[in-house]
Amino acid sequence: MRIILIGPPGAGKGTQCQRLVDLLKVPHLSTGEMLRAEVRARTPAGIEADGYMAHGQLVPDPLILGMVGRRLSQPDCREGCLLDGFPRTLHQAEILDDLLERQAMSVDGVIELAVPRDELVRRMLARKRADDDPGIFAKRIVSFELQTAPLLDYYSRQDKLATIDGLGSANEIFDRVRAAIQRFERASRRP
Ligand code: AMP
What we know:
The chain has 191 residues and is an alpha/beta fold.
């Protein structure tokens, strides 16, 4: 299965992704993690991305699309993958659809982890990451609301969106994630 997990910064995507890859037995493609690895290795892509990431801005599309395109064409992604942090804009979603279509593939379902803004801020204050500075974190939330939220509509119109409540224990949330996956499985079997 090809599943996308969408949620604002601090929604708990990381925890749910770990569980989902175990359930689905597919590779986890986190563009944020891929970029952080490039930054650590001081590659040209990492050096370019670093400034954007440090300011809570989206990294330019050519860099992201090249990185994701190369990863998706690797053999371990043939049976499916879990996309985390990508697509992040309507343009990226359209390019992804094109990329998959050329390989006779498609997105099976999109899970939105919905968490209210004040809860996101509370969680951010409880963890520590370079781009978790309160000002930068606020920018990442605004970027999500302006650039990523329109994606929800895009996938909803394709009848591929499951919005789930991101409040509760990791186990409770994962039960909802699993139920969404079952719905996608039933839908993919429909003629
Ligand atoms: P994340 O770990 O998914 O929150 O991503 C961390 C940072 O990496 C984001 O704030 C962006 O600067 C950058 N990033 C990750 N994924 C993308 C993407 N699909 N498009 C543009 N920038 C991205």
